[in-house]
Amino acid sequence: MTKVSIVGAGPGDPELITVKGRRLLEEADVIIYAGSLVPKALLGYAKEECEIHNSASMSLPEVLEVIEKGVAEDKKVVRLHTGDPSLYGAIQEQMDALSKKGIEYEVIPGVSSFLATAAALKQEYTLPGITQTVIITRNEGRTPVPDRESLRSLAAHKSTMCIFLSISMLGEVVEELIAGGYEPDTPIAIVQRASWPEQRIFRGTLSTICQEIEGKGVDRTSMIVVSHVLGSDYELSRLYAPEFSHGFRKASL
After folding, report:
1. Class for domain 113-230, per CATH?
2. CA angle 226-229-235, nearest 5°?
3. Across the strands, what pairs with 32?
């Protein structure tokens, strides 16, 4: 039986963790959670005797030490990450280290904040005639970004772009997007703490958004969405068109 589970906590609302993720939290003997981003409410699923560690102040060796100790004591260990572990979760280095140590683990996906952002905006990211592509990226900061993946390069596609970890550089983000091909009047939305009780939404265009959020305390837990889907007319999907046939329905016209 796998003793180590890397679990996606979801975007913030404790009810948006998966059923499997919640069960693993309830069964865990040891939980290591990303305290700077994972809501404390999720720890309410843990049993009273569970050993809980906040990884916000821990180094990778310290995290691995806790996992190794738990496994050696035949305990169930949960490594709880915000959102979905596959996106900006820094889990690859943890998984590789566990593999080198011969420790088996599983990964449980979670609801990413870019999906919770779409729900908050009540917006589909892919609309017929507008865009069928979603780019998930970030602006370069302390973590470098390859030149071919710069915002300026990606903007040439004019598709929906979900930009993580970049709100503190919004002015630079806007400049790069416009330089890359987005028009200044391209719609943009910023969702702060999507799915949390304190969720806030700001809308504007590339030319107005910096002024829109100025002085409003918009912090790093914010998603930036740039796309013409935020304010455009679009073609209706063919999936439900009466004259459109598919494997489950014949055309009626």
Report:
1. alpha beta
2. 160
3. 53, 79
The answer to whether domain 4-108 has CATH 3.40.1010.10 is yes
Cα separation of 85 and 10, whole Å? Answer: 9
The two beta strands, 30-33 and 77-81, are parallel
The torsion angles phi and psi of 88, rounded to 5 degrees, stand at 50, 35
Q: Any idea what the Cα angle at residue 46 is, between residues 97 and 32, rounded to 5°?
A: 25
- Is the Cβ–Cβ distance between 77 and 5 less than 8 Å? yes
Q: Which residues contact 118 (CB under 8 A, 6 or more apart)?
A: 124, 125, 225
CA 206, CA 154: separation in Å to the nearest integer?
Answer: 16
Per-residue pLDDT tens digits for 58-71:
999 999 999 999 99
Query: What is the spatial distance between Cα 33 and Cα 23, in angstroms, rounded to a whole number?
Result: 16
- 211 Cβ neighbours under 8 A, 6+ residues apart: 204
Mention every residue, 6+ apart, whose C-beta is less than 8 A from residue 61: none
Identify any residues that bridge with 108 across adjacent strands, giving them in sequence order: 7
State yes or no: pLDDT of 249 exceeds 60.
no
Smallest CA-to-CA distance from 188 within 134, 224, 218, 164 is with 224
Q: Taking the model in full, what pTM does it have?
A: 0.89
Sheet (strand 105-108) strand order: 51-54, 30-33, 77-81, 4-8, 105-108
pLDDT at 238 over 90: no
Q: Please check whether residue 117 is in contact with residue 221, taking contact to mean a CB–CB distance below 8 angstroms.
A: no
**Residue ranges of domains in the chain:** 4-108, 113-230
